[in-house]
Specification:
Blueprint lengths: L1 H56 L5 H12 L11 H8 L1
Helix pairs in contact: 1-2
Length: 94
Amino acid sequence: MVVMHIEEIKAKLAHEQTKKERLSKKVNHLTNELQHKEAELVERRSKFVKELCWAKAHGIKKYLTLRRRLVSSMFPKLDTTKVKCSNVLKEMLE
């Protein structure tokens, strides 16, 4: 009776261990994916900032459009048609 109880506990322990390992692998995968997306966002942001600075320096009329694109790419849920984006851009360009 006691031997069966010990075997059941060992089986439960082994099951929990494999469950823990699977969750650990999933967490590592999601962490790597998040880091990749963050790096992609930083790269995209720097590209838009360079494009924006170039357009501003050359006095291109697309400046406002580029500014909206930059802010909307960084903050997808922000409605850039109703919100003034200049404060966000000033912080980024500094």
